[in-house]
Amino acid sequence: MHEKERHRIILSAVQEKPVVTVQELVDLTDSSEATIRRDIAALHVQKRLRRVRGGAEAITPPQFVGLAGRPFSVNETINTSKKRAIAREAVELCKDGEPIIINGGTTTFQMVHFLASRRMPIFTNSFPIAEHLLKHSKNTVMLSGGTIYREQNIILSPFDNDVTRNFYARRMFMGAQGLAPLGLMEADPLLIQAEQKLIDQADELVVLVDSSKFRQRSSLILCGLARISTVITDEDIEDRDAAMLEAAGVSLIVAKGTAQSASQSREGSSLQA
């Protein structure tokens, strides 16, 4: 990740939370601790943030505390071709007239391109998903109520009496920050609370994650593997991760044409470094 992009993410993060730790910024940018400390020092000198012990804070404290995790605009540039192929497989599971829920995220957002010719009731908490479907499809779209979190482009409500409880879905499609033997992982408690309400409204839970998500972890568990019906991922999934899903009784769909060559992997690693 280039320095300008890292600085943009760091500055965005300190505007979302009172204090952001070095480790949180390492996770957000996939950079080393030494790199993040240098970035914080440079931005401190430029008076764009204030360096504190173990992290950084905004010069002007945020008026509105946002969600933990990378911004939507950053995530949508990562593994885009894999996400699109995964989304194509997800839409293949859908039938016209069948109600579905699509949770906000950059992988689930790719589903909109393949839903253009479909006709079904769709409930979502994603502002960009709803906007795209309204403009480019004839699907019936229902939005959840609540606060719009700009960085993640998602609508969340902490209240039980929102419209979520009034929608039934055959399937719910969602991404996640990580997927491990303990289950689906997310980074923010409010996100966990809202997504658990959505999961309760669907018969089947279909998880869309590229293979890198099997190596990512968080301190918060959204749900166990037993609640997941199907996982859709790419061809770079490792055998141990496929075996983990099989042992848990989770169906696995691998999107074709998504394998990353060794040379591409090396090139990507050198660019990140």
UniProtKB/TrEMBL annotation:
PROSITE patterns named in the record: HTH_DEOR_1, HTH_DEOR_2
SUPFAM superfamilies: NagB/RpiA/CoA transferase-like, Winged helix' DNA-binding domain
Keyword set, alphabetical order: DNA-binding, Transcription, Transcription regulation
Transcription regulation recorded as keyword: yes
GO molecular function, one term: DNA-binding transcription factor activity
Gene3D superfamilies listed in its UniProt record: 3.40.50.1360, Winged helix-like DNA-binding domain superfamily/Winged helix DNA-binding domain (1.10.10.10)
Repeat listed as a keyword: no
Domain HTH deoR-type: residue ranges: 3-58
Top-level taxon: Bacteria
A Pfam family reported for this protein in Swiss-Prot or TrEMBL: DeoRC
Protein name: DeoR/GlpR transcriptional regulator
Organism: Oryzicola mucosus
